[in-house]
Amino acid sequence: MRYEIPNMRYTSRYTRNKFEIRSTTVENVRQITPFYAKQTQFQVRPNKPKLLYDKELRKIGQLVTQTKQSQFKPNKAKNKPNLSQNKPNSNPIKANCLPPFKGANLLVFARKTVYTLRERRTPAKYLWRTTSMFTRRDFLKMTGISTAILMASRLTKASDRHRPTNIVIIIGDDIGFSDLGCYGGEIQTPNIDRIAAKGIRFTQFHSESMCAPTRVALLTGQYHIRGYNSGRNVTIAEALSKAGYRTCAVGKWHNAGEPILNRKAPLERGFDNFFGTPQGCGSFFAPLTLSRDGKPAEDQWKKNKDFYYTDAISDNAVRYIKETPKETPLFLYTAYTAAHWPLHALPEDIEKQKGRYAMGWDRVRQQRLQRMKKIGIVKQDTPLSPRHPNVPAWKDEKHKQWQQRRMEVYAAQITRMDKGIGQILKALKETNRLQNTLIMVLVDNGGCHVEYKQSRTGSFLNKQTRDGREIKTGNRPDVMPGAEDTWQSYGYGWANASNTPFRMFKQYDHEGGICVPLIVQWPKVISHGGQITRQVCHVMDILPTVIEAAGVKYPETFHSRQVDPADGKSMVPILRGQKRKNHEVLFWKFSHGCAVRQGKWKLVRMDKEPWELYDIEADHVELTNLSRKSPEKAAQLAALWEKWNKSSASKKPGEKKNRK
Ligand SMILES: [Ca+2]
User: Fold this and answer.
1) What single DSSP character describes residue 282?
2) Is residue 2 part of a domain?
3) Which of 10, 457, 599, 648 is least surrounded, with the fewest CB atoms within 10 Å of its CB?
């Protein structure tokens, strides 16, 4: 539990020195903790700040008491602890925050005062002993201030402290590792970047290789091949609704292993409300299967010529935030369809991208890698993967105008999503939820290379535009994409750039398909923003993270059905700035890919081709195949993968074995 007290100023009449207690929060105590850490053996490292909890505060309090004789005499400066000796000068954030004034140690003292008042309710005796350097009037004044602050703080903050954490998950669709601004992309994402500036970016967070299995793993905390409707899992929404949360889903549903046109699917797995599309993709101007709470809602775009799906998703997310009663904790799952094909964007957004991609994909890839190194997303020695064999050098590309336009529309789709994320942040702030909300922004898989064919059909494809015009489907260089009557994808060249510096794409288990952005903001826990972590995580870690943040226990049964343990592991320790115990081993299998990762080793293959072995720590881009050099390691990992594949297969839906 954290204690927070509003800013206060205090002037000591006795010494005539001005002591400014800028903010007697845990934050301040932490700033001067390096000194006390030495004596209390707290693990406080310069670049890994941690929050202090009751036990630690108590220890610091005791320490203050013990050292008061030698160190709390303001007139004997030589006896004071020299805080600057322990100042981590290498960390500018921390150095700036260190109390620069003479009476820095009083911060701890003041902090202790409040703590004592709260916990023991007998402050007078203790304070008299420890405040001998003050006059009686000073002491009375200080006690009065502290008590008044304490009382006010109790009234205003007590309910907040015990209020469960709101959870907001925002997931983008088919967006590459380096597309977002805060991951080195040239696409403008100021709102996502703002979340990154206050939170943590993950550089080894893994999805599955496609939309549906990623969503299963995200919502159930288990490997997707164990089956979404196996009956042996709970969704985040089920677990949280049991704990009193309001649970809302907005946007794309699309979980593997269930009918794709079930409008009630989210409502059947714990969500109170759902506005969106059960199927995996569709027109941004006229999305088929659009539903609200299980009923058709296509009238939304039929009667509104300005309808744009990304905006509708943002508006409904905001609506759910605003209409949820203040006392009710909220779980909001917002799944954008941006930037999955078709390339549909609003003219004003496309206009803003005009000319940005005239340099071509080769330059874009080089520039992105440079920026990624500069901001620390990848290591300095990271090489660029070779251009994919299906992609010509930009100088040899025949349809440069058309190619540029494809990427302009793709980027426009992402900027619109980012704008919506800004609206969500604003709504959280306006409803006073932001400080108590865990926000996770991620992507479901890497950039998608698929060249949309003219002959392709599907339940997602509209027969005509809303005003009855023909839709020109397929990647045709004679048609500029973006409008409602077009249906294209951005293809190999730009997907290759999206996934810089990695190889391969969506549908594959090389890093280009499964290494995706995850950005987490949680003001209560992450107080130093802009951090980057290289700890290895998986999308199935989200459920354990969320339920830990919400203070909910993972259930052994749910509605009388047995629930298997989650495969994922909580990422909360990482959010607290600690090193988490890693997954012993991670597995993937879907579409064209199979993979297994254990420590620094990754074994991966595409389709029926031989396994490739990489030292992924040294070679994150997967350029040096070590399977011939280390055949034993490759064989050992292949055996692990086969065993996992078999064991999981036995729990697939439909098989009664192991089911209760
Ligand atoms: Ca996807």
Assistant:
1) -
2) no
3) 457
Beta bridge partners of residue 330, listed in sequence order: 246
Q: Residue 151 has what pLDDT?
A: 52
Find, among 495, 504, 493, the residue nearest to 395 by Cα: 493
Give me ligand 1 centre to Cα 490, in Å.
14
The pLDDT score that the predictor gives to residue 351 is 98
Output the domain CATH number for residue 555.
3.40.720.10
Look at residue 299 and tell me if it is in a domain.
yes
Token digits of residue 45: 């490292």
Indicate the pairing of strand 586-590 with strand 593-598: antiparallel
Query: Is residue 49 a part of any domain in this protein?
Result: yes
The rounded Å distance from CA 250 to ligand 1 centre is 16
Q: Do residues 218 and 545 make contact, with C-beta atoms less than 8 angstroms apart?
A: no
Tell me, in angstroms, the distance from the centre of ligand 1 to residue 246's CA.
26
Ligand 1 centroid, distance to 521 Cα (angstroms) = 23
Shared domain check, 202 and 122 = no
CA of 210 to the centre of ligand 1 (A): 5
Separation of CA 324 and ligand 1 centre (Å): 29
CB neighbours of 617 closer than 8 A, spacing ≥ 6?
Answer: 600
Q: Which residues of the chain are under the pLDDT cut of 70?
A: 1-161, 649-660
Same domain, 176 and 74: no
CA of 177 to the centre of ligand 1 (A): 13
Distance from Cα 439 to the centre of ligand 1, integer Å: 20
Tens-digit pLDDT profile for residues 87-102: 333 333 332 232 322 2
364 in the same domain as 444: yes
Amino acid at 328: T
Instruction: Quote the strand ranges of 327-483, DSSP E.
Output: 330-335, 437-443, 472-473
317 and 416 together in one domain:
yes
Write down the pTM of the prediction: 0.77
176 CA → ligand 1 middle, Å: 10
Distances in Å between the alpha carbon of 653 and those of 223, 260, 560, 567?
A: 13, 16, 18, 17
Angle 502-508-511 from CA coordinates, rounded to 5°: 30
Whole-number Å distance, alpha carbon 460 to ligand 1 midpoint, is 15
Residues 199 and 332 in one domain: yes
**Vertex 610: Cα angle to 606 and 611 (nearest 5):** 75
Distance 225 CA to ligand 1 centre (A): 17
pLDDT of residue 91: 35
| 298 CA from centroid of ligand 1 (Å) | 23
CA angle 611, 612, 614 (to 5 degrees): 145
How many folded domains does the chain comprise? 2
pLDDT tens for residues 216-227?
999 999 999 999
* Phi, psi dihedrals of residue 295, rounded to the nearest 5°: -115, 155
337 C-alpha to center of ligand 1: Å?
8
Q: How far is the CA of 585 from the centre of ligand 1 (A)?
A: 24
Coil, helix or strand for 337? coil
Distance 576 CA to ligand 1 centre (A): 29
**Per-residue pLDDT at 527:** 85
What residue numbers bound the domain in which 481 lies?
A: 166-649
Residue 147: per-residue pLDDT: 52
